[in-house]
Structure formats: structure tokens, C-alpha cells
Write a structure and sequence with these properties.
By secondary structure, this protein is of the alpha/beta class. It has helices spanning 47-53, 80-94, 106-118, 139-146, 148-151, 156-168, 177-184, 190-201, 206-212, 235-244, 260-263, 265-276, and strands at residues 11-15, 18-25, 32-36, 58-62, 100-104, 124-128, 222-227, 249-253.
Length: 280
Amino acid sequence: MTTDTDWQLTRTFTGASGDVRWDRLGPSGRPPVVLLHGTPFSSYVWRSVARSVARDHQVFVWDMPGYGASEKTAGQDVSLAAQGRVFTELLGHWGLVEPLVVAHDFGGAVALRAHLLHGARYRALALVDPVALAPWGSPFFRLVGEHADVFERLPPALHGALVREYVGSASSPGLHPAVLDRLVEPWLDGPGQAAFYRQIAQADQRYTDEIQGRYGEIGMPTLVCWGEDDTWIPVAKGRELAALVPGARFEPIGGAGHLVQEDAPAELTAALLAFLRQPW
């Protein structure tokens, strides 16, 4: 497991929801791969996979507005609807017409919305424990969403403990302390604390309800990977999703929770590379 405290995004794109930090790895001219993170995470969770894939692909990573190193502001629209639009804008900014796309958690819904609602085209799509099927949202998630204004006013120490516990629960074997520190860091200062509860308050299931009935329209090669020990979204949802997408292949990852990238990076990377290297 690598902590990679030097993981940095060096480029900026200004979109409808604020400044987006992004970067590119790997040699130019190689097949492009775009990685989308989930919530409450950032591109940091993709660091090991990104560097491995970048050996023979051009890899694009980014922090969504309101996440990681990207802009966090009061009143910011960080909903799934906004993120789908921003991702579509980014693909145009990067000049990518049909990239390979790999998306985790909330990022899966972003990639699906961009494709089904905004016309984004992908050469192939890999979904890793995505938010895609109703119902979703844990009791804690719903509680925070209903009382975000109250949670925003928690004393910093209590807020920090809550975020650490919540993020840590995404792993089955448990996160390395340095990794957990890096994952929670963006949420701990004043703007970060407000942003943490803002993104939960705006995480409305209607944004996946709008597209769930259209998964049968997906015509590209699709891989669905899922941590078998995911307690955030049960593995049964993965099998259900794969059955709804024509020709999709389902790949369970043993010993991994929701954060498959941290729990089983080698196994996930192997599955993704085998998929991405296919001669589509």
C-alpha cells in the first residue's frame, strides 16, 4: 500500500461550478483513460491505479468541484447534475472524443449522467462500486443530509472524529493511518467542513432515478467491479447493475470493501488493465 503524500494536481480548469484541479499522467499519443473518484474522496484514491495504467495509456485525473484540491465555496452546486455537466465540459477541454472511462462510487453516476443525458461518448466504461441503483444512502448519510446546517456547526474536533470514522468505514481491512489522514484532510478546515456537509445535503437519489431506466441503452463495452465486502453498497447491487447493462461483465473483488482502490489495488488494477487493453 502506498500513501504517496506528494500526490498533487498541477492544472486548473474553470467550469460552471468553480475551479477544478486536474492532471495528466503517461505518454501523450497513447489511448486516453479518465478516472473519476467518488464521495467523500478525491483523485488521491486512484494514485496507484493511475500510475500503473499510465505505463501504456494517457491518464487524466481530476478532483470534482467541492472535493479534494478543487474549489470549495458557499452556495456551490456540487450535485450529481452539476458534476455531470462539469465532466462533459472537461472532456471538451481535454479534446477527448471517446476516452476509456473508469469511475468509482459517485463518479459512476457522474459518468453515466454525462453519457445518457449530455451525449458524452466513451470507448469503454468500467464502473467500480458505483452509485447507480435505488435505494442508496446509509441512515447516517440521510441524517446528515436532513440536518446539514446543524452538522456544519459541530466543533472542529467532533467534526474531524466523525469524518475519520465515516471515511474509515469505507474500507474492509482498514486504512493505513497516513492514507486516512490524507483522505480526511480536505474536509477539516473551515471551508472543508462546510463543503463536507454540502456535498451530502445535495446528494439526491433523484439524479440516479432519472437515468436508472436507461441503462439498457448503454451500448459500449462495460465492466462492473465490486468489493465483495462493501458495506456501503452491497455487492448484490453490482450484480443487479451488470444485468441491466447489455453485455456488461461483472468482476467481484474479494477482501475489498467500498474503497477497492485501497483494499485491493493490485487485484483491481489487474482487472482494469485486462479490460482497458482489449481491442475494442
